[in-house]
Amino acid sequence: LRNLLRHAAHEQPLERTALKTVESMYHMLNADAGPCVKAVFDGLDIGEETGVQLWSYHLLSNGVAGTLGVGDLDTAGELLEKMQDYEHGARTLDRSLYHYHCAWLAMLRGDADTARREQREALFQAEAAGCPFNVVLCRLALAQVLVEQGEMDRAAMELRKIHPITRSINNRLLEYTS
Fold first, then answer.
1. 39 near 55, Cβ under 8 Å?
2. Which of 27, 94, 146, 158 is paired with 139 by a 20 to 30 Å CA distance?
3. 3-state secondary structure 88-126
């Protein structure tokens, strides 16, 4: 990753922002929120300077996930608000992730009603995008919200819907989780 980033200075803006997206995802997946957020804002700066903002929404999504993953709810909330600035370029799957993150934040804040509403919208968008991986993520999260609200039968129903999807996409981790 370091070598790629070192050479990125000589690349075109699209490649540079794509590399910042990869960098932010790397740090997000390693629960390293500080460098994740720095990569997000570096990528956003490139987009602002050059007008190449294709990756802006995804960068912010990585930042939100990275900060939620370490419990930094304030920064996650700020990044979610900033995502709205780039909503014009958001695709269906992007909108799904936005609502997924809103639900995650609401759950961490103890607001299961908002989490349920947001997670239903995330699921709707994931299904509209036709992305089985995200459908599984959304149904898993919805099941967690339903458990929080004491609706065990409905949560179990969501989990039963997930299992065949995980087998069809051959994702052992999601299959185990479901």
1. no
2. 27
3. HHCCHHHHHHHHHHHHHHHHHCCCHHHHHHHHHHHHHHH
